[in-house]
Automatic annotation (TrEMBL):
Protein name: YprB ribonuclease H-like domain-containing protein
Source superkingdom: Bacteria
Start and end residues of each YprB ribonuclease H-like domain: 93-260
One Pfam match: RNase_H_2
PANTHER family found in the cross-reference section: EXONUCLEASE-LIKE PROTEIN, YPRB RIBONUCLEASE H-LIKE DOMAIN-CONTAINING PROTEIN
Length: 408
């Protein structure tokens, strides 16, 4: 056989490609058509079809925001300044994926793409469903060229760890540079954990829906079953479970939007949060960000002498100390010094204040010996119990010896 050069080989392969029968379009797939009819959707891109579904959901709080003009979202405090400035609600793209696996990785394939954005005080939810494998390029090209350019910020729930890397990798594998890779990405799970991590046994979206948004889903498909349900659809063409998956994804997008609006409300009126554990976490955020005014307001809302009140008041005293407001700091320390949960750290702060600021060594020594007296009583009752208290005792003993030397 005559050896062909490269040009002849390419010409030969092209001629063979033309002889191949064209692939059968799944636009005529009765299962996909049935899904389109059920959701009043549109089958796009007939050569490599995908289903597009669009619905609207009213957002009451968005209407309140819009009363003053273009709704703006403020999350600088709760996001720890990840989003320093207010941003238009209309610039946010909520997204959530349903995939063929829960672990991620190169073999995981997203088959349902849920997106949502706010328009005229309603949430527009647009979903794209891929009916089988190997036809995703048409959808990604559509998203890249016609859909994504309208937005500037991504919002997801645990999307930074799972959905975002997966979507980005699929774009790259299809030789598309994802435009959304340059956007700020607000993962609401991180914000939720900062507030409610001590309030609920978990911070998954279902828990937050039930306890924060007061939504309770009926006949929702379990997340762990979604991959198997999609495989069953490909094999059998039965659409019942796919309908449930699409509804599940739709509710996820709606909850994302409502959660963002709820967080915006908490950002602007944090004192309205009634759960004391969540409120204490807000106080911790205020302390970390050195917001003395907000921390004072939050502390004042706790039940007097409750553990949350005592802890938040002590944090406030440390901010007063940092700002050299010694009178205000001392007043809080004197208020809290008999509270068992903060006694030793408060007595330590009082002793340091008397020694280093007031230069009253006698008073500093008296406070130090008071702390040692309480520690000795605690030891007689049940032992120090932890190495922490032993370390505290050593520190007070060291301070006691130093003060005695200063007074001698």
């Amino acid at each position: 056989m005559k050896t062909m050069d490269l040009h002849s080989k390419l010409k030969y392969y092209k001629s063979q490609q033309r002889k191949k029968k064209p692939e059968k379009s799944t636009a005529d797939n009765p299962a996909l058509s049935a899904l389109a009819e059920h959701f009043c959707g549109i089958i796009q891109n007939p050569s490599a079809p995908f289903l597009q579904i669009e619905r609207r959901h009213p957002l009451a709080y968005a209407q309140e925001l819009a009363a003053g003009g273009n709704p703006q979202i403020k999350l600088s405090f709760l996001s720890r300044n990840q989003l320093e400035r207010p941003f238009p609600l209309s610039s946010v793209l909520f997204f959530d994926l349903e995939t063929t696996g829960l672990a991620g990785g190169a073999g995981t394939y997203p088959f349902l793409f849920g997106f949502g954005w706010v328009e005229n005080n309603s949430l527009v939810v647009r979903q794209f469903f891929l009916p089988d494998y190997g036809r995703e390029y048409g959808l990604y090209h559509h998203l890249q060229e016609e859909f994504f350019p309208s937005f500037e910020i991504l919002a997801s729930y645990n999307g930074k760890s799972y959905d975002f890397p997966l979507l980005k990798n699929r774009f790259i594998l299809n030789r598309l540079q994802p435009v959304f890779d340059r956007w700020p990405h607000l993962d609401l799970l991180h914000v939720v954990r900062r507030i409610w991590k001590d309030s609920f046994y978990a911070c998954d979206l279902a828990t937050i829906e039930s306890n924060v948004l007061n939504h309770h889903r009926q006949n929702d498909i379990p997340g762990y079953y979604i991959p198997q349900a999609y495989f069953n659809f490909i094999r059998t063409g039965v659409i019942h479970d796919v309908i449930r998956i699409i509804e599940h994804n739709y509710r996820d997008i709606v909850s994302l939007a409502e959660l963002l609006l709820t967080l915006d409300h908490i950002e602007q009126q944090p004192h309205t949060l009634t759960d004391p554990r969540a409120r204490l976490n807000l106080a911790r955020l205020a302390f970390e960000q050195q917001d003395e005014t907000l921390l004072s307001r939050l502390s004042a809302g706790f039940r007097l002498k409750s553990p949350e009140y005592v802890t938040s008041r002590f944090w406030l005293s440390l901010l007063h100390k940092k700002n050299k407001k010694w009178t205000e700091a001392e007043a809080i320390w004197l208020e809290l010094r008999e509270r068992a949960e903060q006694r030793y750290v408060v007595l330590e702060e009082l002793a340091k204040y008397q020694e280093h600021i007031r230069k009253d060594y006698n008073e500093a020594l008296r406070i130090t010996e008071q702390a040692l007296y309480h520690l000795d009583i605690l030891n007689e009752l049940n032992g120090y119990g932890t190495n922490n208290l032993s370390d505290i005792k050593e520190e007070f003993e060291y301070r006691q010896q130093r003060l005695k030397r200063k007074l001698s």
